[in-house]
Specification:
This is SBSPO protein. Keywords: Disulfide bond, Glycoprotein, Signal. Pfam families: SBSPON_C, Somatomedin_B, TSP1_spondin. It contains three helices and twelve strands. With about 230 residues, it is mainly β. It folds into three domains: about 35 residues, no CATH class; about 50 residues, TSP-1 type 1 repeat, CATH 2.20.100; about 120 residues, no CATH class. It has a six-stranded mixed β-barrel with strand order 7-10-11-8-9-12. A two-stranded antiparallel sheet has the order 1-2. A two-stranded antiparallel sheet has the order 3-5. A hairpin with a 5-residue loop joins strand 1 and strand 2.
Amino acid sequence: GRAPTCRSTGRRPDGSTGPCYCDQACARTLDCCHDYAQACPVIPCVVSQWSAWSGCAEPCKTTYRVRRRHILQEPRNGGETCPALEERAGCVEYWTRQGTECQQSLIPALITTGGFGTARRKRAAADGSERAGYCVEFQLVALTPGCLHSRPWHTRWMRHLREGRRVCVECQPPALQPPGQHCHGDGTGSSLNQLLHWQAVGNHQCRGTWRRIRQLDTCSCPAVHSFLFI
């Protein structure tokens, strides 16, 4: 009885008799008139298709993007209410509005086992393109469970990744990128204790965060905890 002006007396859909109503609340309170469904058919909400995703709200930082839709038909007579008209999703853009690259600290590091570097050095020496690289020491902060459940033999090196452990990651040619001769994702320019992101090559379910400790111009990484920028 939310709308007393729309009131009658008679039979209800459940067979009982008494005051009955034709407002939208009667479907929930079970005091509709018997002909409510025919006289006042349910009209659900209808919305448009989603728009395309917008760009990131701000460049060079972890933020969000948006997509929207609008109402084509309002619900009536107890019809389904309208769903959410806006959705947001995580977003990072690595280029400024002017088209220049963002700081290195925003680019996730792609890493693989350090054993791959031996073959890379041999190839570089054979074609005379060998240049000096460097290493970066990180402390692992968090990683996904997918790192610990790597079954194929070529992904078993990921089991050496553990939260709190210090790891050494080498930057070798041809991963050195001009003009600064740095590896993407090495954390150059990051602030102290900033959380940086990494992704293991060969297993998209293995990723996490770490903090940069220091750069080592002369690499002396232990074999077990040694990794390589791609």
